[in-house]
Amino acid sequence: MHIRNFSIIAHIDHGKSTLADRLLQLTEAVSEREARDQLLDTMDLERERGITIKASAVTVHHTYQGEDYQLNFIDTPGHVDFAYEVSRALIACEGALLVVDATQGVEAQTVANAYLAINNDLELIPVVNKIDLPTARPEEIAMEIEQVLGLPAEDCIYCSAKTGEGIAELLDHICRKLPPPRKPITDKTRALIFDSHYDDYRGVIVYVRIFDGSLRVGDRIRMMGTGRTFNVNELGRYTPAQEKVKELGHAQVGYMVCAIKTLDDVRVGDTITLDTNPAAEALPGYEEPKQMVFCEFFPATTTEPSGKKGEYEALRDAIEKLHLNDASFTYEPTHSDALGFGFRCGFLGLLHMEIVQERLEREGGVEIVQTAPTVSYEIELRDGTMVEIHNPADLPDLSKVVSIREPIVKLEIICPTDNIGDLMKLCDGRRGAFKSQQFISQTRQILDYELPLAEIIYDFYDKLKSITRGYGTMDYEIIGYRADRLVKVNILVNDQPVEALSLICHRQNAEKRSRAILQKLRKQIAKHQFEIALQASIGGKIIARETIKSLRKNVTAKCYGGDVTRKRKLLEKQKKGKKRMKTVGSVSIPQEAFLAVLEQGE
């Protein structure tokens, strides 16, 4: 039996999941009765949004030239935020199908995923999908693939995942062109963990690719990274239904159940070997994902109903369980004077943050208050050390700071030629540095820019889509940290700094952003008996101010007659009282005021 391991990669919404459905049907892995759209997208969230969030590994069989081929394929996500999922899937494969929409053409994530596969030495098969649509331009798109990615246009397979046209030829091409798995290097068992998810009844289900040796039910295994040992209770493959097997042999992909209950015992990228006959060295793993966007999650209510688990504990349990299914986000406990106890989480991008929040609310059954996203900064201190912070409140004393460095991204935008001017204006306004411009076709171009990550995490993508009427796409990667004129802005309420509202931003944007915060606060904080000053400062210098006028009580109302000095005496008395109240009185800031600022960002 021949084995072929491959991934399906593409830009978001180019038809990966539909193509996976057709491959399952044509290889008779699912019957007509069981077939449904997006069969491998098991989450409700994936089906509602029409996107793949988690990679799915499936084993099917196909007969080519009278010989049986076992095809192990992985349907991967297409959005830039889930590139980590794609990189894990590619490690377990020898080839990849690069799917391109026949109407949209090569887009930003198409290029990024193609280079990811090339860097892993994978054989690429370009597939032009959706050729059944009236606006399809298959030959033109094939030339785009050749021009941008260097894959010969004549190698492209034309198909329609919707109608099934060209899928049979694609299956034969996979068997013919993709390389077989490499031969075993050692007789000792080595298997790579490329994914895992949590099951309430069976514990952690681990997805593995066998590189050397084999795994059998009953084997005692050792995780080479953590050193923990377990007994294999169950092995199997997804076909796409779970199919139990007694053994997983060389180059096969499957799942493993070992009654692993502790969340920290499984590390994606770890190597599994036999405890009795261990391998000398682990398989080359892949680098851990680097979180670039951070925000804080707090329980929506801090009151704990009698007899029920507290909101904080429920949120902690939901985050711990989700972290096992999605190892690419981090979390740590935090406390805010405004919102109480919660967690500071790190994400790969904004969509990733949005998906995690929605999954926590749906799967964990918790209500969440989320603060505005921020990025990480590197602080160079005078003693030569470098500190990384994720929260402006953690910034060391400025007298000890030499420079503040922010993450810089290499941004690649693919857009219609008509919108080049507007997009350049947008990037220049976000402190972008123009690098290069490349023509794909007569109507589309690639723009390369370098921008600070902080400038694109709020509304950059929305503005890009608006300018290009939905035709523009972008992909970015972190290229390093760079020092700039960054400052910490403190927000003062009645001369008292409120750390929860402090922010780090560029000096030229500091006044505009801080004034927006003060205006929101002025609307949310109730009037007091005395005047309240809302100020924004950089160091000791005030850069913006708003004032909440005091409540005016008419103390002279009872003076219905007599000399005017009686009224003046009462007004002087009130004036002294207000002055004293301003020095000793405290301003109560409602939680709604923090939420108004934190949730919407600046």
Explain what the structure shows.
The structure is a single chain. 41% of the residues are buried. It is elongated and about 115 Å long. Helices cover 26% and strands 33% of the residues. It has five domains: 2-177, 3-Layer(aba) Sandwich (Rossmann fold), CATH 3.40.50.300; 190-274, Elongation Factor Tu (Ef-tu), domain 3; 293-372, Alpha-Beta Plaits (2-Layer Sandwich), CATH 3.30.70.870; 378-483, 2-Layer Sandwich (Alpha-Beta Plaits); 487-600, Alpha-Beta Plaits, CATH 3.30.70. The strands form six sheets. It has an eight-stranded antiparallel sheet. A six-stranded mixed sheet has the order 2-3-1-4-5-6, with helices on both faces. Strands 22, 23, 24, 25, 26 and 27 form a six-stranded antiparallel sheet that branches. The model is unreliable at 32-54 and 303-308 (pLDDT under 50). The protein has 13 helices and 32 strands. The termini are far apart. It is of the alpha+beta class. Helix 7 packs across helix 8 (350-363) and helix 11 runs antiparallel to helix 13.
